[in-house]
Each structure stands twice: as structure tokens, then as C-alpha cells.
Write a structure and sequence with these properties.
single chain; mainly alpha; 2 domains; 14 helices; ABC_BtuC-like; transmembrane transporter activity; membrane; ABC_transptr_permease_BtuC; Iron chelate uptake ABC transporter family permease subunit
């Protein structure tokens, strides 16, 4: 059973759960509006609206349409991907403290990017976007294979992920120390940011995120059966090995695509599923939609907070989520009943 789950959690009334989804939609719209309006130059909401739907060629229109709209849409897409990936990861491993990075996604992407920069001399974001995605996929595949392939168990996946992460991040750190130019280029990608991500980059990665989200939602029912244990899942007609493999594929598409696009943004996949279970219970059929709605709210909210706190400059969203997630993680670890999650 997940940490902190309660026998009544699985018996939440559907109207209450539906109300939570509607609230998430309202909060997402509010976070989107704030993301479009708040920045170095504050823009009133009525000017944001006119800039989107009735532009007159003003400076504010250009800021809204060319800078903040792609950034906001990227935040929505990446937030939903990280939230879904976190919900899948925690359900698959039956561990609510698991993060999508546990499958080696972040480490694989980082290793591929540092190799592209140092060995191949690629320095443009567009150039190493596909290296990041390929590295994430290869690392997740290695974790799946080391964890037992089709016979992988949650514990073996976690152990394999820890080993692969340690090895790849050791490689990354070593290469960065050997090549200081690589260190400088890598810092720009590794900070985790929504800034300077234009619509073309988002459209390049969006099909992968949509495919991953579709697969994740389709796996909700078999994952719910899998949470009861392998024997119970088989008795209910669930193909256990296939479900695990497809879950890893979905996590790779979601988190690999998000990491390739914005760099590693930590803790979103940890915080949102854990918080969502307190309201909708552990059933993946409800948990995953909650994650898809509330994770973009967190990501956009953190991005706006970073702009406000350090104005007229800004703090990158990856730094803000790391700070918030670190506080939550410490709280979870210190909880007296943490072993019953």
C-alpha cells in the first residue's frame, strides 16, 4: 500500500473526485493567465486577451504572443508529462517517494547531451535535443533490462535505476571536469528552464508527449489491478509483464521528451502524485488525470514565482521546484508513519 494511503482513500465518491478535476482545470486556467501576464513587464489581463485574439501590433502584443505564449504552452505540456510520468513511476514501483528520474531518464539525457557537446561539438539546443531524447530512452531501456526485462519487479527496477543513475552521472561529472567548455554549455541546459523555448521546439517534441500521455491513460486500469499484487492482477486478466514494459515506454516518452525540451526539472513528478492521492486515492484511473491537471499548475506557478522573487531578473523554474520538492521530501522522510506509505 502507498505511504499515507488510507482504506477510505479508494472509496472517495465520484462527485468529489470530479469536483477536484474541475478545480484543477480552474487553477490551470488561472496559472496560465498569470504566466502570460507576469514578468519583467507586467501586462494587464485585458491586454493579454487582446494580444492573443485581437493584436494591434503593440509591444505588449509581441511579448504575449512571441515570448510568453510559447513559454506557457511549454510549461503546460511539460508539467502534464512530468506529472503523468511521476504517477506512473510511483504506481509501477509501489513507492510514492519514487521520481521519474529513478528510471535513469534524467541521467541518460544528461550523458547524451554532454557527449554531444564534448565529442561532437554540438552547441545549439536544437542540435542536442534529439541526443537528450535518445539518451533518456537508452537509459530507461538499460534499467528495464538490468531489472529483469519482462520479469522486472518494482524492487529490481528501483535498484537497477539507482545503479544506472550513479554510473551515468559519474560519467557526466567526469567529462565536465575534463572539458571546461562542456561544463559551460551543459550548465545552460541542466538548469531546467522554460525560458527561450519557442513554438517550433515544442511542436517537435509534442507528438512524443501526446503518445506517452495516451499510453499512460490507457494503462490506468491494468495498473490499478497491478497495485493489488501480481497474482491478483493475473486473476483479473491483466498481462503483468506487458503492463510493466508499456509503463516504462510511457515514462520514457513523457519524461524523456520533457527533459529533452526543458532540461531536468526535478520533484514535480514526486510532489504532485503524492498530493493528489490525498484527494483522489491511489486508483490510477483518477490519479493520472489529477496529475495531468495539477502538475502544470505547479510548474507554471513555480515559473511565475521565480520571475517575481528575482525581478527584474528571474530564478529558473528547475531551481524553484527543487527547493519546494526538497522541503516536501524532508517532510515525508521525517513523518513518523512514512514506512506505511
Amino acid at each position: 500500500m502507498f505511504v499515507g494511503s488510507h482504506p477510505r482513500a479508494g472509496r472517495k465518491r465520484p462527485p468529489v473526485r470530479t469536483a477536484g478535476l474541475l478545480l484543477g482545470l480552474v487553477l490551470l486556467l488561472a496559472a496560465t493567465a498569470l504566466s502570460l501576464a507576469v514578468g519583467t513587464q507586467q501586462i494587464p489581463l485585458h491586454q493579454v486577451w487582446s494580444g492573443l485574439f485581437a493584436p494591434t501590433g503593440t509591444e505588449n502584443d509581441a511579448i504575449v504572443r512571441d515570448l510568453r505564449l510559447p513559454r506557457t504552452l511549454t510549461g503546460v505540456a511539460v508539467g502534464a508529462a512530468l506529472g503523468l510520468g511521476g504517477g506512473l513511476m510511483q504506481t509501477l514501483t509501489r513507492n510514492p517517494l519514487a521520481d521519474p528520474g529513478l528510471l535513469g531518464v534524467n541521467a541518460g539525457a544528461a550523458a547524451a547531451v554532454v557527449t554531444a557537446i564534448s565529442v561532437l561539438g554540438i552547441t545549439s539546443f536544437t542540435g542536442y535535443l534529439w541526443f537528450a531524447l535518445a539518451g533518456a530512452a537508452l537509459a530507461a531501456t538499460a534499467v528495464q533490462a538490468l531489472g529483469g526485462g519482462r520479469y522486472a519487479t518494482p524492487v529490481r527496477l528501483a535498484l537497477a535505476g539507482t545503479a544506472v543513475n550513479a554510473a551515468l552521472f559519474g560519467y557526466v561529472n567526469g567529462l565536465q571536469q575534463w572539458d571546461l567548455g562542456t561544463l559551460d554549455e551543459m550548465r545552460y541546459w541542466a538548469v531546467g528552464t522554460l525560458a527561450k523555448r519557442d513554438a517550433d521546439l515544442l511542436l517537435t517534441v509534442l507528438p512524443l508527449l501526446v503518445a506517452g500521455a495516451t499510453l499512460a491513460l490507457a494503462l490506468a486500469r491494468p495498473l490499478g489491478a497491478l497495485a493489488l499484487g501480481d497474482d491478483h492482477a493475473r486473476a483479473l486478466g491483466t498481462r503483468v509483464r506487458r503492463t510493466r514494459v508499456l509503463s516504462v515506454v510511457a515514462i520514457t516518452l513523457l519524461c524523456g521528451g520533457a527533459t529533452a525540451l526543458c532540461g531536468p526539472i526535478g520533484f514535480v513528478g514526486l510532489m504532485i502524485p503524492h498530493a493528489a492521492r490525498a484527494f483522489c486515492g491511489p486508483d490510477p484511473r483518477w490519479l493520472l488525470p489529477y496529475c495531468a491537471l495539477y502538475a502544470p499548475v505547479l510548474l507554471l506557478g513555480s515559473d511565475v514565482l521565480g520571475r517575481i522573487v528575482a525581478a527584474p531578473s528571474e530564478i529558473e523554474v528547475g531551481t524553484v521546484t527543487a527547493f519546494l520538492g526538497g522541503l516536501l521530501f524532508i517532510h515525508l522522510v521525517r513523518r513518523r508513519k512514512a514506512t506505511r506509505l
